[in-house]
Amino acid sequence: MAANGHNGRPARPDLVIDDQERGLFRIHRSAFTDPDVLALERERIFDRCWLYAAHESEIPNPGDFVTRRVGGRPVIVTRGRDGKARVLLNSCTHRGAVVCRELRGNAKVHQCFYHGWSFTPEGEVNGIPGEDAYSDAFDRHERRLREPPG
Questions:
Q1: Which architecture, in CATH terms, is 56-143?
Q2: What is the DSSP string of 54-71?
Q3: Beta strands 64-70 and 104-106: pairing type?
Q4: Bridge partners, residue 86, by sequence
């Protein structure tokens, strides 16, 4: 791991010893607790691959949802009105607060407690208090809930 860590300093190159001639493979114990290693794993592994979030049987009906942390990120696993299962970041696109604070349930909308923005199970903006105060250039679609990277 000679690559740079999340703070710009080199990650420790001595974390993994792989000496095939001697039949030796070891991982230093700090690899399991080092924040630089975790940041690299998120960037190079978890942000680029499929991760299990929930089983579809947990959200059988439109509006059903469960919330989880997946790859270090809070997500909402939900079934839309169209019957499609989705994974959305559980973070309001206005100020970043958690949108859904329940572990599971059924909802027509998820409303952020901070400023009251609400979102459909498909992630679209449903309502914004005082929306008329925003300029004509404001685009609701750009403020929809995001999908996780990957």
A1: 3-layer Sandwich (2.102)
A2: --GGGS-STTEEEEEEET
A3: antiparallel
A4: 78
Written as six digits, the tokens of 139 are: 């685009």
pLDDT computed for residue 17 by the predictor: 87
Distance (Å, whole) CA 142 – CA 150: 19
Give yes or no for residue 94 having a pLDDT over 60: yes
Residue 48 CA to residue 8 CA, distance in Å, equals 21
In the chain, list all ranges with CATH 2.102.10.10: 56-143
* Dist. CA 33–CA 63, nearest whole Å: 38
Q: Distance between CA 5 and CA 2 in Å, rounded?
A: 9
Contact 109/50 with Cβ under 8 angstroms?
Answer: no
- Answer left, alpha or beta for residue 111, where phi above 0 means left and psi between -120 and 50 means alpha: beta
At 38 the three-state DSSP class reads helix
SS3 content of the chain, % helix, strand, coil (to 5): 15, 25, 55
The angle subtended at Cα 89 by Cα 132 and Cα 37, nearest 5°, is: 135
Q: Which residue, among 72, 6, 70, has the nearest Cα to 37 in the 3D structure?
A: 6
Mean pLDDT, range 49-78, rounded to an integer: 94
